[in-house]
Every structure is written in structure tokens, then in C-alpha cells.
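[worker-b] picked up task from shared queue
[worker-b] task type: protein-ligand structure
[worker-b] ligand name resolved to 2-acetamido-2-deoxy-beta-D-glucopyranose; SMILES cross-checked against name lookup, match
[worker-b] sequence length check passed
[worker-b] input payload:
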Amino acid sequence: MATSLFGGGRMSSSSRSRHGLKVGLVVILVVGLAPILISLNSGSASSSSSSSSAAMGGHGMGPMGAWGMRDDSGKTREKGMDAVIAEQKGGSMVTLEKNKDIQGNNRHLNTNQHPRHRTLDQSQSTQRSRDIHPPVLKETTGNYEPPRQPYRTGPGEYGLGVLLNHNEKHLYDKAFEEYGFNMVVSDRISLDRIVADLRDKECKHWHYPTNLPNTSVVIVFHQEGWSTLIRTIHSIFNTSPKELLAEVLLVDDYSDKVHLKKKLDDYIRDPRFSGKIRIVRNKKREGLIRSRTIGARKAIGQVLTFLDAHCECGPNWLPPLLAEIAVDRSTIVCPTVDAISSDTFAYTSQGDGLCRGAFDWDFWYKRIPVKPYWHRLGLKQRSQPYPSPVMAGGLLALDRSYFFELGGYDPGLQIWGGENFEISFKVWMCGGSLKFVPCSRVGHVYRKQVPYSYPSSGVEGVSVVDLNYMRVAEVWLDEYKDSFYATKPLLEGKPCGNISEQVEYRKQNCPKSFKWFMEEIAFDNLQEYPPPAKNKIWGEIRSVDSELCLDTNGAQNDPTHATMGMEGCHGMGGNQLFRINTRGQLVVEDGFCLYARPNTEKLIFAKCTAEKSFTSETTMWDYDSDRQIIHLERRKRCLDHNQETSKVFVTPCQHGEISQQFKFYKEEIR
Ligand SMILES: *[C@@H]1O[C@H](CO)[C@@H](O)[C@H](O)[C@H]1NC(C)=O
Ligand SMILES: *[C@@H]1O[C@H](CO)[C@@H](O)[C@H](O)[C@H]1NC(C)=O
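[worker-b] inference finished, payload out:
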């Protein structure tokens, strides 16, 4: 991890693949270029703290100069960089022979070479493309920093939220129902509003390579609102350097809203977009995942940047993403995702600092703060890109031809869900990497509800999303798929379609195991969301005498107010699906455990990761199927309930006490 600030820089190539034809690849090996920033920072253990404290002090010029990280090699590098800029300004930038493969063969596509060897080669190499200068942090303002924008006034400017009047509540309700967010407020905010600059101050001082690849921004939409979609487009044009934006490619996933037809066709012809917007319209509903693949095939840019249809880009968001890909084309990058409120359209950070992507074992996306792992990750600057095991999925950029080398998204994934994990596991296990880029910020409207329905997955009792998760688990998780099925016991043994192509792809291209991925890349995930133990028994917990089911009532979301109890059995799993595992934990679906402290009747919900402080002989649950009791301390204390109040608690076990008798029941869960 600590070998390079900006990734291995194994091999760089640029390719033009208009019409899907590979025109050329360049592989330039550089022997003599060490990763400069590393050597600059490796001098003293205190350098990272001194540089960050310098940066925090406003303009950040420490006594050692910019960020206290200079030496001769750095100056040399910067001079080289300035020269390139000067040449570009003078209109005579040296054109490198991009399309010529100086090695005489194309390593990425050379089928004679065993792919395992190929990937191994790459990961051990320190090759760096001669024509790409990695980003450099300097005192001066960064080369792609936009000039200060003229001051703007109006609702929502600078990312402020906009409120409706009380008498507009009916508009609000209608908008939410139709779009899943407050379209009334969105309509009142300028399509060209400027959002807050939430970047770390350091970000303004990064200098990026001047020969960055261009990108197609691919946006899939389905039944999207007008102003949110158009603001996304305006924002891309307003914040991206012209030469880097090859096009904005809209993929209409079979919408039927009138404003998304001719009105949109006409709008995108506006000269302000220089003919750079195209629309592809699906003939049937394909879902987000397949629509992205459709967009990727049609795109003309060297890099694919996928955004959602309700985003706003922060200042200078694009070059930091493209730079990582330029330095190492097997890098997938994600911007920092800011939150745009679905109520007020206020633009804010998610507020928890630098985080890495993670997941629990039924594939809920999680965020884990970077801070405790700072040194293990080899980080020096708060504003530098850092590796993340997985991505949230909505916003990402990657080299277009690399996307296809990775096999794209599994075409068996339907509509939405799981593709973020698939591509994350794939890129790591097949020799690439995934990075989060703090200096690139893009806001995204988080919907409260999805305003359209999902089709059925075609498999009885399995939702589209679960079917996707199963495919990902079956192809990528190896022995860890037991953890997935332990968490989602209803899915075990269900069919998930034909995965033979994905399995074959992995065999041919991906030398790493999931165990390697978890231990080397997702080590924090392993710590924060450890794999669950095997289930001993699972199902609804039904009272023997009343046909009521144990129900968390959402207590895991709101432990101070909600209390669990007995409710009518709904047969839908979720809050009523419990399992006792070999560690003696009583677990509800999303990783929360039910604990009974010694000597009290009260039950407590806590994340199962809190197991160290909770788990002991006295808090281990077991089920006695003869006596039908859920008990602690070898049948000393029992789960009990009050039939009148429906409350649930723990009391001393009493033979034959009917309120202590429960059965695990799974026959009617759908
Ligand atoms: C993108 O960059 C490639 C390589 O420099 C170039 O050939 C192509 O014309 C560019 N595309 C657009 C639309 O600017
Ligand atoms: C699964 O797909 C592969 C490749 O597309 C095909 O060869 C194979 O026959 C399929 N298997 C089944 C059971 O349909």
C-alpha cells in the first residue's frame, strides 16, 4: 500500500475505440521515474502531521514551503510539468505517439500470454508511462483550478437549501410521490447554480497532468424529473474543462414522461452544449445496469464517467478523477459523494470525514472512517486519493477499454443492485484497483423512496436485488459466500441463473482469491463487519400459544424509542426473521444482535460487532427444541413474553410455562 501515492502506475496506455475498434494502445515503460511524492514524504515520521497542520492553517504555507514536502527531485519534476504547461499555452504541445505500441504488441489483449502471468507482471512492476506526470501538490494554484465565478444570487445558490411555504404542502406531497424528491424546490433553483466548495483547501494546489484523457459522461435515466436531469447536465458543462468533456451521453431507459421526449431532444441542441450531448433510447426497460453497458458501448470518450441523473458537480471535479486513470489505466475512481437533500436540495457533505466503502454480509453498503487505518493505508495527505475496497456504485469513472477488458457488468444483473460490488471485487481480484478521490466532489440527491416499481426477478421468492447479490456471491465470494447465506438464509439453494461466463472470466483473468481481497484490501471491513457465524436455527420466532411473532419493530434503527415485541406474523422476513448462530448470538437480519445482560429482564439491541463486550457464557442464546425454549445460561433464563402487552423480556425458566415457549418457523416466509 505504501509504495505509491498514486497507485502502481503499472502500465499506461491510451486507446481510441470509436465504433468499438481498438485503434491503438501505447505502452511506454519508464524505468527511471520513481514515485516522487513518496520519496519526498518518507523522510520523517512527522512529515504527514506537519504537512496537514500546515494545510489546516488557512493558506497552509509551513516553514518548509508548500506542505513541507520538497526536495530536488520534486523541483525537477515540477519544472518538467511547467514546461509542459508552457508548451501547451504556446499551442505547440508535443504530441506523443499515442497510438503506437512501442513494444510491438498489445499486452492487455495478447491472448498468447496467460492472463495470470499478465496480472502478476503488472502488480510487480513499477512501470510508469513516460508521458503522464502524476499529480503534484505545489504552492501555486492548481493548473485546472477554475477562476472565481461571478457572485450569484437566487434560491439555492452556493448549495443552500430552499424551503416551501406551509400552503405548498400539497405540491410537495405530489412531487415526492412522482419523483421521490422535492421537484417543486428543484424547479425553483437555477439550472446553473453554484454549489458550495466543500473541498479540502489543499485540493486547490494539486497540479494534474496536462495530457489527460477525455471522457464520455454517461447518464442513465428512467422517469427522471426535468430540472434535476437538466441541472445535472448544466453542472457537468459548467464545471468541466471543455477539452476533457468528449460528450454527455444520455441513456433513456424506456421512460414515458412527455418532457423526456421531444422537449429533451430540442433542448440538447442548444448551442451552449456544442453538439456534445447525445441520447440513446432503450426499446424496452433494461434497468440501470444494462443501460450503463449500452451507454459504454456507444460512448466515444477514452474514459467512461457514470453519473446519476440527479447530480451536481463540485468545482474542478473532473481532472482529479481523470488523472488517476491517466497514471494507471487499471484504476477505477469514485468522486467523494456529497448529499443533496431530497427535501430542500441543500448541498452538504456526508459529514463523516474520509471514509472507505464497505459492506455487511447481506450486502448493505457501509462507510468506514479512514482515520484508524491511515498508516496502514500509507496515506500522507488528506487530499490524496486512497484505495477503497468497494464503491457505492452511482458515480465512478474508468478507462473505457479497461471496462470491457473487465468484462463490463455481468449482463445477468437486473435493474439495479449488486453491480457496485461486482465491479469492485472484480477490479481488485483481477489486478486493478479502486480509489476514492477526495478532491473530486459530486453531489447526489438521495431519494427517500423509489417512485417506480421493480419488475419481478423471475425467481419465486427472490427480489431482483437479492438475485443480483446471489450472482455476485456465487461468482466472487468463494468460502465467504457461507457468510452471505448465513445472513440471508432464505436465499440458500435458490437459483440465480446461468453464471458460467462470469465464473469462466474469473478463472481466466483473476488470480486473487476473495480471502486475499478481504485480508489485504478490505481489512477494515473484516474488522468492523466480521463474517457471521453459521446458523444453528433460523426463522420466525412464533409463540406456541398465540400465533404471534417476535418482531423488532425497527428497534435496531431507533433503540431508544422502539421496543421489540410480539406482532402478527407477516411472513416477509425482515423484522421477524431471527437466527441463533454457533456463537450463541440471536441475530436479526441486518446485523443487529439481541442481548440480555445478566440479572435484568431487559433486552438490548446492539450491533453484533459489539460482541466482545457482550458475549460471554451469560449472554449466549440457545434453543431447546424439546422444551421449545430460547434460553440463556443453560436453561436458567428464558425468553418470555406478556400476551396482553406483547412485551418481550427475559425471566427465569419454568418448566411448562407457555409464555416461554416458542418455535422457529420458516414454512410461510416468502
Ligand atoms: C478524445 O481524445 C482522443 C484522443 O486524444 C481524440 O482522438 C478524440 O477525438 C477525443 N474526442 C473528443 C470528442 O474530443
Ligand atoms: C450457460 O451459459 C453458457 C455460456 O453462455 C452456455 O454454454 C451453457 O450452455 C449455459 N448453461 C445452461 C445450463 O444453460
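[worker-b] attaching auto-annotations
[worker-b] Residues 72-89 form the longest helix (18 residues).
[worker-b] releasing lock
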